[in-house]
Amino acid sequence: MPSTSDAPRVSAKPPNNSGARAWTLADSEELYRVDQWGSGYFGVTPDGTVAVYPDADPNRSIDLHEVVSGLAARDLTAPIILRFPGILRHRMGALRNAFDTAISDSAYAGKYACVYPIKVNQERHVCESIRDSAAQLGFGLEVGSKPELLAGLSLTEGMNGMPLVCNGFKDHEYIETVIIAAKMGRNIIPVVEQAHELKLITRSARLHQVTPRFGVRAKLATAGIGRWASSSGFRGKFGLTVGEILHAVDYLEKEEMLAGLKMLHCHMGSQVFDIRAVKYMVSELAHLYVELVRRGVPIDTLDFGGGLGVDYDGTQSASDSSVNYTLDQYAADIVYRVKSICDDSGVPHPNLMSESGRALVAHSSVLVCEVLGSRVFPTEPDADLLKRALEQEDPPQPLLDAHGAFQQRDTGDIFEAYADAEHALSEATNLFTLGYMNIHARAACEEMFWSIGQAVLDRHRDELPDGLEHLTDTLADLYFLNVSIFQSLLDSWGIGQLFPIMPIHRLEEEPTRRGVLADITCDSDGRIDRFPGEDGVKSTLELHVPPAHDDAEPANPYYLGIFLTGAYQETLGDLHNLLGDSHAVHVELTEDGQWRIDTVVEGDTVSEVLSYVQFDPEDMRRRIRKDIEAALQVKRISLSEATSMRRFLDDGLKGYTYLE
Fold it and tell me: Smallest Cα–Cα separation from 650: which of 612, 626, 618, 616?
């Protein structure tokens, strides 16, 4: 079997003493493609650690490894989410500047505002940071359910002018709450998703004697693109067709409520990676706006929804994990399209609104995990095992064939040796299954095969012949992370989302291993084996040899950072294996260049996650203590063992759900 890093039989690739150039920090930066996906917020320090530039200024940085080490000294151990409000503020400012520039350059007469969809990251401290910046930038919030509506009303208390757009299915209670909030003076805008919601708005508005501002979502013919393409177009979940919108206008005229229809909305989808799709949808929405204005509808705002994507893999391409446009191009194309269509038709320029969430928060969070150990395939077979297998009476032919291939590894054709070893292993497996080969011979065949495969990779990794492309994946190391993919990185498992991943330290060292990542859940799907690469996706990640873990003298931790995790990951996580929320810490950069901890949100305790699934921790404590006493009474365990068990019970219930 593969060996673990706790008892390694394999060493790191020896240093290259042939005169080749030594490894540099620039090599690490290029290898992990930090400049491509980092958007100016991440880099490498002279100490070989990851730098965070909260305001995209390379002269003002936070040392990520220094922060993680400082938190560990405060008993806040990985896995841990580090949030950087400075990045969040900078992203919001960049969006504001992009549209302001496009509006100025085009002499556009309308204004722009972004409303942040709370669903993208509903954590209160994140929402409060966004709310505070939104107040300065003229932005607002978007909600899509009753709980989010209440959260939005609470967040914007005392901020009557801040836009609060209300999407999602609505019942009478939802609508009445919105209407009363409008009467209170709130700038709240319900968006009609279903035709019957118009009747709810009309009935409630009359009851409370107010004419609210509201919008209608159009179900456009133009379909989206990418993973969420089906969420838009005619088959989309929300919105009214053009015919239904015309009926709605007739109904509102009849009910004398047309004056309240101020917004036309559409849904592009999420992570729209091709700018052409954005142009098509904006053009269709703008033409619909023109026709409705001509019809006499007093619309003054176009809300083109979400869709602004993030370049997760750094390829700047039209692919699921990237985008082929910049923020400035996105803003300029939207403003230009709407202006041209309005000017050609002689109608006023509407105000513009977007519901950008992913693009605002993705960069602002980093998930840091500790490597617990690794499992690697040996570069050399165990000498004692090989001797014992070969010295048996009448060694089986597959064993002899594998040994012959192994002897040819360093002197002959390495590819021929691999093919022979692969065939020998297949025959050995069949013989073992039929009971004609003992376990030592079988194990020796495996280890010689792995050794030859490793030799192939060491010499020809970048030029593997046809038929051997799988070898990198087959012999990849397995690195174990103290994290739950299902809790902290659900999109990686659920939809195959790529996230940039790299060590946050030791970047002055050349990474000599290639591996895939596995979490601590008991689910085989709890792994990451797709990583951003130069051509989009690679199946292994370059890593350093992790330090051996020794209980008597713990090794220095080896940390990996998973970047661009601010959007959706914290909200979507589940309780697989009852592994709960991880610690989350807000880190700010002070004026004098120091980092400080601004907010600490401690992760779930064992008691908390048990209570989520209706276990009563106190009842559990009583039951287990009773069982311990019963075992002690009949002398199955000693008093010290009983004490140890009780201590584990008490400490465990109030402790972190992850390994500490």
Answer: 618
Longest Cα–Cα distance in the chain = 99
Please state, as a whole number, how many other Cβ atoms lie within 10 Å of the Cβ of residue 161. 11
In Å, what is the CA distance from 578 to each residue of 173, 278, 513, 522, 615? 35, 41, 32, 11, 12
Residues 145 and 247 in one domain: yes
Is 102 a member of any domain? no
- Residue 553 neighbours by CB under 8 Å, 6+ apart: none
pLDDT at 388: 93
Beta strand 42-44 with 583-589 is unpaired
Q: Which of 124-128, 474-478, 524-528 has the highest mean pLDDT?
A: 124-128
* Domain CATH number, residue 383: 1.20.58
pTM above 0.85, yes or no: yes
Report pLDDT digits (tens) over 410-437.
887 899 999 999 999 999 999 999 999 9
Same domain, 233 and 159: yes
Q: What is the pLDDT of residue 224?
A: 62
Q: Which residue type sits at 454?
A: Q
Phi-psi region of 143 (alpha: psi -120 to 50; beta: other; left: phi over 0): beta
Quote the CA–CA distance of 511 and 504 in Å, as a whole number.
12
For residues 216 and 253, state if they share a domain: yes
